[in-house]
Amino acid sequence: MVKELAISVYLFIFRILFNFFKLFPLKKKVVGVATFGDNIYYTTNAIKKLSNEEIIILKDSSCKYRFDSRQAQIIVFDIKHPISYIKSIYHLATASTILVDTYYGFLAATKFRDNATCIQLWHAGGAIKNFGLMDPTNEFRTAKANERFAQVYRTFDFTVVGSNMMAETFKKSFGLTDDRILRTGIPRSDILFDHSMKDHIYRNMTEKYPMIKNKQIILYAPTFRNNQLSNYQLHLDIQKLYQELSNDYVLFIKPHPAVTYEISEAYKDFVYDVSDFYDTNHLLLITDLLITDYSSIPFEYALLEKPMIFFAYDMEEYSYTSGLIDDYEHKMPGPVVASTDAIILAIKENRFDYLQIKEFADQWNEYSNGTASLNLAKYLTGTEEKEKERAII
Length: 393
What we know:
alpha/beta, Rossmann fold, 2 domains, seven-stranded parallel β-sheet, 13 strands, globular
């Protein structure tokens, strides 16, 4: 009750400020509200190549992505910084294009102008767990809260997808119609087609960690769990992995940025904490084998046609609390296991179906072909229509 009251007061104040700033002239500018940042980064970079539109990035407090201040004006979007926060609301109210990359409650208090466009660049390229209107926890929320969520989803003029599979997911999860889907591909996936960037990242990583040279890189990237902030445990048995795999492999660990863990110094030449590595797709380029669980990472990693293992040690519990897609165990393009021993066995016996990985990649990445950022930028700047007109002439 107290939480709902606080949210209502916050949205009331936000709405007043937003509507006041709507009295100012609309400007030809792109405003990105970034929590994850990567899709917004690639999109705005592509826009810069086609247009001289002003780019403004509103970084919320959890955004770790590195934006180039030479390419965009960067503003802290955090209520703890009131002056910057009010400036952010002004830019949102006067922008012609608004890019968002996750759920933002403030959108329930905004009604953008008819000639402004709000684009959802969702932070996942595919769906393993249920979210939005399909979130199983909605039944425990108040009717007012659920209506607020629906209001936010109605704010998106368009949502970007990399596949028709994800389009169908968004239709159900956000209540969208097909005409509100942009099939341009996932902007951040472009980097996975850049082989020169792979060499560059690997050189930088081996300079930082010389011991990884001539070793295969395993990346462990688990999804966030609601109970991790107070009681995070690394369920991998590092000692076993070290004993069985350290001759040929190194292990990179990238948990959610909000959680911390400790690894013994005894494994310092085998285990590397890459939690501060801001662009996960950069890491994927140099990863030889991915271990994850219910994260969306496999949808884009599959483009590289490399093996992956799904360490789903708490599948039953997670399915109950967060909701998993039907038949998760058979839909994932790799072994679904519940123990470190099973991980080791899958690696040693090469239990990977590469045809299944390719089919999974094709299914979820129809429109992500290396030009997704440019495709979206052309749409947003009107370049696509101009090119069509020139072709007709």
